[in-house]
Amino acid sequence: MSDMSDMPIDLFENEQEIYDNSVIRAVQIRKGATLNFEEYAMLVKEYGKLLKQLRRATRMSDKTTTDLYRANLNLTDKVNFDALTGIYNRRYMEESMQRIIKSMARATNGLLSVLMLDVDHFKLYNDTYGHNMGDICLRSVAEVLTTSVLRPDDFVARYGGEEFVIVLPNTGAEGAQRVADRVLERIKACNIEHETNDSKYVTISIGATTAIVEYTHNCEDYMKRADAALYLSKQGGRNRYTYLDFKGEQS
Question: Which one of 14, 25, 26, 141 is least enclosed by Cβ atoms within 10 Å?
Protein backbone atom coordinates (compact mmCIF):
# COMPACT_ATOMS: atom_id res chain seq x y z
CA MET A 1 0.00 0.00 0.00
CA SER A 2 1.29 3.46 -0.91
CA ASP A 3 2.37 5.94 1.73
CA MET A 4 -0.72 8.12 2.29
CA SER A 5 1.37 10.99 3.60
CA ASP A 6 2.69 11.48 0.04
CA MET A 7 -0.78 11.87 -1.51
CA PRO A 8 -1.54 14.98 -3.63
CA ILE A 9 -3.04 17.98 -1.88
CA ASP A 10 -6.09 18.09 -4.19
CA LEU A 11 -9.11 17.10 -2.10
CA PHE A 12 -10.82 14.81 -4.58
CA GLU A 13 -7.61 13.18 -5.77
CA ASN A 14 -6.84 12.32 -2.13
CA GLU A 15 -10.32 10.97 -1.60
CA GLN A 16 -10.18 8.81 -4.73
CA GLU A 17 -6.74 7.39 -3.95
CA ILE A 18 -7.70 6.50 -0.38
CA TYR A 19 -10.85 4.81 -1.64
CA ASP A 20 -9.00 2.86 -4.36
CA ASN A 21 -6.30 1.69 -1.96
CA SER A 22 -8.90 0.70 0.64
CA VAL A 23 -10.77 -1.44 -1.91
CA ILE A 24 -7.54 -3.14 -3.01
CA ARG A 25 -6.49 -3.80 0.57
CA ALA A 26 -9.93 -5.18 1.48
CA VAL A 27 -9.73 -7.64 -1.41
CA GLN A 28 -6.23 -8.69 -0.31
CA ILE A 29 -7.36 -9.28 3.27
CA ARG A 30 -10.35 -11.28 2.07
CA LYS A 31 -7.94 -13.50 0.17
CA GLY A 32 -5.91 -14.12 3.30
CA ALA A 33 -3.55 -11.19 3.68
CA THR A 34 -2.79 -10.12 7.25
CA LEU A 35 -4.53 -7.00 8.56
CA ASN A 36 -1.90 -4.50 9.63
CA PHE A 37 -3.22 -2.45 12.56
CA GLU A 38 -0.89 0.52 11.86
CA GLU A 39 -2.03 0.52 8.27
CA TYR A 40 -5.66 0.53 9.41
CA ALA A 41 -4.99 3.36 11.90
CA MET A 42 -3.35 5.45 9.17
CA LEU A 43 -6.33 4.86 6.92
CA VAL A 44 -8.73 6.06 9.62
CA LYS A 45 -6.53 9.10 10.19
CA GLU A 46 -6.55 10.01 6.50
CA TYR A 47 -10.33 9.67 6.35
CA GLY A 48 -10.54 12.00 9.34
CA LYS A 49 -8.49 14.60 7.47
CA LEU A 50 -10.76 14.28 4.46
CA LEU A 51 -13.84 14.77 6.59
CA LYS A 52 -12.39 18.01 7.97
CA GLN A 53 -11.59 19.19 4.44
CA LEU A 54 -15.09 18.34 3.26
CA ARG A 55 -16.61 20.26 6.16
CA ARG A 56 -14.43 23.26 5.34
CA ALA A 57 -15.36 23.01 1.66
CA THR A 58 -19.05 22.82 2.59
CA ARG A 59 -18.78 25.94 4.73
CA MET A 60 -17.02 27.77 1.88
CA SER A 61 -19.71 26.60 -0.54
CA ASP A 62 -22.47 27.82 1.78
CA LYS A 63 -20.75 31.20 2.12
CA THR A 64 -20.35 31.44 -1.65
CA THR A 65 -24.02 30.60 -2.15
CA THR A 66 -25.03 33.27 0.38
CA ASP A 67 -22.76 35.85 -1.24
CA LEU A 68 -24.20 35.03 -4.67
CA TYR A 69 -27.74 35.33 -3.31
CA ARG A 70 -26.98 38.74 -1.83
CA ALA A 71 -25.29 39.83 -5.04
CA ASN A 72 -28.33 38.76 -7.04
CA LEU A 73 -30.63 40.71 -4.72
CA ASN A 74 -28.41 43.75 -5.13
CA LEU A 75 -28.47 43.34 -8.91
CA THR A 76 -32.26 42.99 -8.85
CA ASP A 77 -32.51 46.25 -6.92
CA LYS A 78 -30.36 47.99 -9.52
CA VAL A 79 -32.42 46.58 -12.37
CA ASN A 80 -35.88 47.33 -10.93
CA PHE A 81 -35.41 50.55 -8.96
CA ASP A 82 -34.67 54.11 -9.97
CA ALA A 83 -31.31 55.18 -8.58
CA LEU A 84 -32.34 58.77 -7.84
CA THR A 85 -35.75 58.38 -6.20
CA GLY A 86 -35.61 54.81 -4.89
CA ILE A 87 -38.98 53.91 -6.42
CA TYR A 88 -39.60 51.45 -9.25
CA ASN A 89 -38.26 52.35 -12.67
CA ARG A 90 -39.84 52.24 -16.12
CA ARG A 91 -38.57 48.76 -16.88
CA TYR A 92 -40.17 47.31 -13.77
CA MET A 93 -43.40 49.18 -14.46
CA GLU A 94 -43.70 47.87 -18.03
CA GLU A 95 -42.90 44.28 -17.08
CA SER A 96 -45.27 44.38 -14.09
CA MET A 97 -48.10 45.86 -16.13
CA GLN A 98 -47.79 43.09 -18.69
CA ARG A 99 -48.08 40.52 -15.90
CA ILE A 100 -51.03 42.39 -14.37
CA ILE A 101 -52.84 42.61 -17.71
CA LYS A 102 -52.32 38.93 -18.39
CA SER A 103 -53.59 38.01 -14.92
CA MET A 104 -56.55 40.38 -14.88
CA ALA A 105 -57.68 39.40 -18.37
CA ARG A 106 -58.64 36.01 -16.93
CA ALA A 107 -61.15 37.69 -14.64
CA THR A 108 -64.49 39.13 -15.72
CA ASN A 109 -64.74 42.93 -15.96
CA GLY A 110 -61.42 43.52 -14.19
CA LEU A 111 -60.64 47.25 -14.14
CA LEU A 112 -57.15 48.69 -14.42
CA SER A 113 -56.39 52.40 -13.97
CA VAL A 114 -53.14 54.15 -14.82
CA LEU A 115 -52.10 57.68 -13.89
CA MET A 116 -49.31 59.58 -15.62
CA LEU A 117 -47.93 62.54 -13.68
CA ASP A 118 -45.58 65.33 -14.65
CA VAL A 119 -43.93 68.03 -12.50
CA ASP A 120 -45.01 71.37 -13.93
CA HIS A 121 -42.30 73.58 -15.47
CA PHE A 122 -39.56 71.34 -14.14
CA LYS A 123 -36.98 72.62 -16.62
CA LEU A 124 -37.54 76.12 -15.27
CA TYR A 125 -37.14 74.73 -11.75
CA ASN A 126 -33.75 73.25 -12.66
CA ASP A 127 -32.69 76.48 -14.40
CA THR A 128 -33.69 78.53 -11.34
CA TYR A 129 -32.48 76.36 -8.46
CA GLY A 130 -29.91 74.04 -10.04
CA HIS A 131 -29.90 70.32 -10.74
CA ASN A 132 -29.06 69.31 -7.17
CA MET A 133 -32.21 70.99 -5.94
CA GLY A 134 -34.03 69.46 -8.88
CA ASP A 135 -33.00 66.01 -7.69
CA ILE A 136 -34.24 66.80 -4.18
CA CYS A 137 -37.54 67.99 -5.66
CA LEU A 138 -38.00 64.74 -7.60
CA ARG A 139 -37.26 62.66 -4.50
CA SER A 140 -39.85 64.65 -2.57
CA VAL A 141 -42.45 64.14 -5.30
CA ALA A 142 -41.68 60.41 -5.41
CA GLU A 143 -42.20 60.17 -1.66
CA VAL A 144 -45.57 61.94 -1.91
CA LEU A 145 -46.71 59.61 -4.68
CA THR A 146 -45.60 56.52 -2.78
CA THR A 147 -47.49 57.52 0.34
CA SER A 148 -50.58 58.40 -1.70
CA VAL A 149 -51.27 54.82 -2.79
CA LEU A 150 -52.74 52.73 -0.02
CA ARG A 151 -53.18 49.16 -1.28
CA PRO A 152 -50.44 46.52 -1.60
CA ASP A 153 -51.07 45.93 -5.33
CA ASP A 154 -50.84 49.63 -6.24
CA PHE A 155 -47.40 50.92 -7.12
CA VAL A 156 -45.53 54.02 -8.29
CA ALA A 157 -42.72 54.18 -10.85
CA ARG A 158 -40.53 56.86 -12.32
CA TYR A 159 -41.26 56.86 -16.04
CA GLY A 160 -38.39 59.15 -16.96
CA GLY A 161 -37.17 62.67 -16.18
CA GLU A 162 -39.91 64.43 -14.21
CA GLU A 163 -42.62 61.97 -15.28
CA PHE A 164 -44.10 59.34 -12.97
CA VAL A 165 -46.70 56.59 -13.28
CA ILE A 166 -49.15 55.17 -10.75
CA VAL A 167 -50.62 51.74 -11.52
CA LEU A 168 -53.91 50.84 -9.82
CA PRO A 169 -55.15 47.29 -10.45
CA ASN A 170 -58.83 46.59 -9.75
CA THR A 171 -59.58 50.32 -9.68
CA GLY A 172 -62.18 52.24 -11.68
CA ALA A 173 -62.29 55.89 -12.73
CA GLU A 174 -63.64 57.08 -9.38
CA GLY A 175 -60.88 55.36 -7.46
CA ALA A 176 -58.27 56.80 -9.82
CA GLN A 177 -59.66 60.29 -9.26
CA ARG A 178 -59.48 59.86 -5.48
CA VAL A 179 -55.81 58.98 -5.76
CA ALA A 180 -55.18 61.92 -8.10
CA ASP A 181 -56.94 64.35 -5.74
CA ARG A 182 -54.87 63.02 -2.84
CA VAL A 183 -51.66 63.56 -4.81
CA LEU A 184 -52.59 67.12 -5.80
CA GLU A 185 -53.43 68.01 -2.21
CA ARG A 186 -50.25 66.51 -0.77
CA ILE A 187 -47.98 68.11 -3.36
CA LYS A 188 -49.60 71.45 -2.57
CA ALA A 189 -49.10 70.86 1.16
CA CYS A 190 -45.35 70.35 0.61
CA ASN A 191 -44.98 74.07 -0.27
CA ILE A 192 -41.85 73.48 -2.36
CA GLU A 193 -40.84 76.92 -3.61
CA HIS A 194 -40.93 77.39 -7.41
CA GLU A 195 -40.86 81.10 -8.21
CA THR A 196 -41.15 80.58 -11.99
CA ASN A 197 -44.36 78.53 -11.62
CA ASP A 198 -47.71 80.32 -11.68
CA SER A 199 -48.54 79.31 -8.10
CA LYS A 200 -44.98 80.06 -6.90
CA TYR A 201 -44.82 76.48 -5.61
CA VAL A 202 -44.16 73.10 -7.20
CA THR A 203 -47.30 71.62 -8.74
CA ILE A 204 -48.03 68.50 -10.70
CA SER A 205 -50.31 67.66 -13.64
CA ILE A 206 -52.06 64.31 -13.92
CA GLY A 207 -53.66 62.31 -16.70
CA ALA A 208 -55.50 59.03 -16.13
CA THR A 209 -57.23 56.26 -18.00
CA THR A 210 -59.24 53.18 -17.05
CA ALA A 211 -60.25 50.10 -18.99
CA ILE A 212 -61.80 46.69 -18.51
CA VAL A 213 -58.72 44.55 -19.07
CA GLU A 214 -58.65 42.38 -22.17
CA TYR A 215 -56.05 39.96 -23.56
CA THR A 216 -55.42 42.31 -26.48
CA HIS A 217 -54.32 45.16 -24.20
CA ASN A 218 -50.70 45.97 -23.49
CA CYS A 219 -48.78 48.45 -21.38
CA GLU A 220 -48.35 50.88 -24.25
CA ASP A 221 -52.14 51.18 -24.69
CA TYR A 222 -52.53 52.52 -21.17
CA MET A 223 -49.50 54.78 -21.41
CA LYS A 224 -50.75 56.42 -24.60
CA ARG A 225 -54.19 57.13 -23.16
CA ALA A 226 -52.84 58.40 -19.83
CA ASP A 227 -50.33 60.58 -21.69
CA ALA A 228 -53.11 62.02 -23.85
CA ALA A 229 -55.03 62.88 -20.68
CA LEU A 230 -51.88 64.43 -19.18
CA TYR A 231 -51.48 66.59 -22.28
CA LEU A 232 -55.01 67.91 -21.76
CA SER A 233 -54.14 68.77 -18.15
CA LYS A 234 -51.15 70.73 -19.39
CA GLN A 235 -53.26 72.53 -21.98
CA GLY A 236 -55.89 73.29 -19.38
CA GLY A 237 -53.50 75.25 -17.19
CA ARG A 238 -51.55 72.57 -15.31
CA ASN A 239 -51.90 71.65 -11.61
CA ARG A 240 -54.96 69.55 -12.38
CA TYR A 241 -56.31 66.10 -13.22
CA THR A 242 -57.86 64.92 -16.50
CA TYR A 243 -59.44 61.54 -17.19
CA LEU A 244 -59.75 59.73 -20.55
CA ASP A 245 -61.11 56.22 -20.93
CA PHE A 246 -60.08 54.01 -23.82
CA LYS A 247 -62.90 55.42 -25.96
CA GLY A 248 -61.58 58.95 -25.55
CA GLU A 249 -64.31 60.30 -23.26
CA GLN A 250 -63.07 63.15 -21.09
CA SER A 251 -64.01 64.16 -17.56
Answer: 26
Considering only CA atoms, give the Rg of the chain. Answer: 33
Using one digit for the tens of pLDDT, what is the confidence trace for 96-107?
999 999 999 988
What tens digit of pLDDT does each residue of 189-211 get? 999 999 999 999 999 999 999 99
Which amino acid, residue 117? L
Q: Report pLDDT for 51.
A: 74
Active site residue 162: yes
Catalytic residue among 15, 95, 162, 163: 162
